[in-house]
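To: structure subgroup
Subject: Chain for Friday's discussion

All,

I'm putting the inputs and outputs inline so they're searchable in the archive.
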Amino acid sequence: MKKRAGVLFIVVNFILFFNNLHIKAEKIKFIKKYELGSEEKKEEIFFKIQDVKADRKGNIFILDYGNNCIKKFSKERKFLKEAGRKGQGPGEMMNPLSLTIDENRNVYVSESLNNRLNIYDNNLNFINTIKFPSSRPMYIYINSHETLIGLQVPRIIGDKYFIKFSKEGKLIQSFFDEFHPYAPRMKSLGNILEHIWAFQYLIGKANLSQHKKRIAFTYERPENPYKIYLLDTGGKVIRTIEKKIKDFNPQDLYEFFKASYKDKNKRYNKDFKSLGIVGLHFTKEDFLISQINEWYTQEGHSENKGYFLDIFSPEGDLVEEGIRFADKILSIDRENNVYSLREDEEGIQKVIVYSLKINK
């Protein structure tokens, strides 16, 4: 009798184990809806897609870094208009970095070389230009009807990652100066060149919650465990999330960069796993998705292993980890449509759109 009970116990637990696996697998779903991008249709030829955003009505705006322009498509994927060209004049752009859309559906495009923000109406008619209150290019987020928040790369001690400024370009506040442990601690701009190999440890990734109550920030080159800082829009750290990554030693990548810079002809023979955080994204429920690029270096040559996702609840708890995802996520809209970038072997770039389903 005890033997039968023991067998029954094992069978029941075996079934429960596989049911839990099924539940876990079904918790997060990405369902492909459609794609934009073609080598035949002129309006769907993209040279280097930098950013994608959708407005409240489902219109899609694609920022093309390689062509210095922005294109608008309807939610039915019909091409509507293109704006911008290379230059420094009104509505022109040079090396656009990011785009965002405000509550009135106006479109904002930040530029790196012109160090400014171009504003267009929803039909991509040029409205105005705002000069950045900082000397550095910024990724822009709409904080409210009156204020904007920019993410920049700090350089010397005392610089901040975030700049809050008005829509007239007036500086309101700068905040967050928590540097990466491997980042150079420079006291002046004069010693940039001697630290250039470690400069990438200053680069951050961030996003603003769709509810506009908090900012997520992390470093492009992760520690282990890697950290995500959740801040309010005034710069106060609300919470710090830490996530351990299996079989990853960040010191290996640091030593690789250091050795490569000192002697570009010298092969770094140690085999190691490398990671880079390519983006943070909030869903409409305020879940946070961290996307990580993984590659391996063997005998001095690197092989890209693709992307995986870690997903955290609004409270900062880990919901899912290591979910493989083929494309680079560029944005998630208010309806949980995921806009991602894919490039084929011929270099054809496409925007792949998924519907994200989260079963709580």
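Points worth raising on Friday:
The first helix runs from residue 2 to 27.
The CA atoms of residues 11 and 273 lie 39 Å apart.

D.
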